[in-house]
Amino acid sequence: MTRAAVLSASALTGFTVANAATAAPATPPNTIEELIVTAQKREESAQTVPIALTALSGESLERQGVVGFQDLGTQVPSLRFGSGVTGGENVITLRGIGSQNTTSGGDSPVAYNLDGVYLARTTSVDPEFFDIDRIEVLRGPQGTLYGRNSVGGSVNVITRHPTPEFAAHADAMIGNYDARIFRGWVNVPITTQGDFQMSGRLAAVSAEHDPYQKNLFDGPGAPHNGDAQDFWMVRGELLFKFSPRADFLLIASTSWNGAPAATKTRWELAPGRYVGALPYLTDPRQVRKNSPEDLDQRNHYVSGTFTYDFGPATFTSVTGYAYGSWRQSNDPDASELTLANNPYWTLRQFQWSEEVRLASNTPDRPLKWIVGAFYFKEKASQTFQFFDTGLNSTTPFTDNFIFTNGGDFKTTSWAPFGQIDYDLAKTSVGIPLTVTLGLRYTKDTKKGFDFLNFELPRVPFVLPASKSFDRSWNQTTGKFGLSYQANPQLLIYANASKGYLSGGGLVGNFPGIYQPEKVKAYEAGFKSTVLDRRLLINGAIYRQEITDMQVFVQDITGSRIDNAGRAHVNGLELEAIATPADGLRLNASLTYTEAKYDSYVTIDNRFATAAPGCDPVTRLCDFAGHRLVQTPKYTFDVGAQYTFNTSFGQITPRVDVFASGDLFFLSANSPFDRQGAYTLTNANVTWRDPTGRYSVEAFVRNAFDKDVISNDGLQSNTLGGGFGLDNYTYYPPRTFGVRVGVDF
Q1: 267 CB-near residues (< 8 Å, 6+ apart)
Q2: Predicted confidence band of residue 273 (pLDDT cuts 50, 70, 90)
Q3: Mode of pairing for the β-strands spanning 110-114 and 153-159
Q4: Dist CA 301 CA 289 (whole Å)
């Protein structure tokens, strides 16, 4: 119970709750445990790692209602997750840095790693966390040890690995919207022969619930699955321990997701409504759609990690392979009329990566070092079609069009890297000051072929276009840091780092190639644990300076990537955890963020005639001073739980409250693409029997049923009568249920 509640809202400590295999020696009851993390690719005490990170254990994820990736934003400061406005893609934003370019030629500026393997596509993000050891979120540019496209930070998911003891678990959950989730894992010792040991672990999830969005139209082709869930996952792991010095971990998983995101086209925002007086439903979760919306998303993953301890150093090799495919359709006008249709968007992707590294293993010496090399290869193919029937357009001849594009992107990336830490406390100087220096050189190459066909059936007219491309970029990034261990309870640190996001391409858009994004970051912080480990207070301040920021523009006449001139992010992150009495645990975190464009001139067809700073002739708009997207000025969360020990078991009620300031989804910062300030409340109560074998949890999430926009995009010019319509997705409404579990 202590492990499960240690950190419900870490801010930047790296202080986490892991399972017993990674925990430090036992601490007195109801004190804050200091745990081991691998944020710097070696096992270290979290409170001595001088970087901004949050880590949450699998137990904490479940207790705090973190079902999948989208819930992490309520527990990890400066992190926000948005569902795509057309289907299965995802948008991750960290410390003001994110991108909605989810096409095959784009890259997320927040790296996602599964058991040490970098996964390039955001479609790989797991919607249902289960049998997870911990999640570590590193904030700010990770330009040395992680490197590839971690300009905003890195999210590292570490699953639970096999152990030499037999254990098993199964649970079942039922809830509103006819939710049914069945989960289980089993850990089996397979063989032991001398020093050789072999263990296996198998985990599986089946998750379903009815749609959160209700379609009131029942005519032909009407979809009734918006924001439903139909997901399953199976993951197997084998751990081979050849000797006390050498081991090999093999992981394979497969998953399927068959439920599309629910989109809501905001017809009431357009100055010119549909000529046939199309009715608008004010309820954000009600629509009248007549075109199919489907999703068929498959992900397959294999990795192998070999480790050998030479004594003075440890060698590690991480090999990863992933294959993913998805096909979706969408009703873009979200009406019972066939104004427009997106019959398909397909994506197929495979990747292969290899990382080797050698890390020193001499803790008594002042010099600690790690060197390595990384290689990555990816091929991604995409096709997309959108057609407008012209029923809502007054433009003759050009009102009916068919837009088809696609292409193949091949990416190759390689990078040597290294980092050294020199601890003056272990020299004759005797000062508890550690100096850190890290460097990484990255070479990225993208090449391939893409096409665009634009048809005007009423003319008739077809504009075919295609191009091949072969572009390369290279960049040196790194880090310089100082950390001062003032006493065993207080660490003070300061870092300067540089990050780099590869250039890329927007498939089937001409010109589609854009340049890399670069970030310089400066940060100072502290980590402290006082009052006999009953109070933890940590904090950091930072500044990020961004050049050539990759801004995805979903204009009413098409899409493109702008390399915005300059932007900055200034931020403050604080957190506290307290255990003032036995059984009681309190936590709170606070962030304040100022994120703005310093210089950004672009074409904006939606506001060219009305918005301040826009020229109605050239359609150029100056967005300097506008806020960066998906970044609220403040967030605050607080959690509390109390454990009652009774003769019939432990009862633990818990409440978590998350509050966010307003935010914008588009660079124009208009009232149409804004989510106002909001508050979300989750609560649960858990009973565990005296033996610790059986458990029952009752929960409610989003208790006050708030309608919060997850993401926003624009529909085409013709649909909006020359204005463009906002297209929203939403976070889940109020959900509640009961989960029953048993351990074997």
Answers
A1: 273, 274, 278, 280, 334, 335, 725
A2: low
A3: parallel
A4: 35
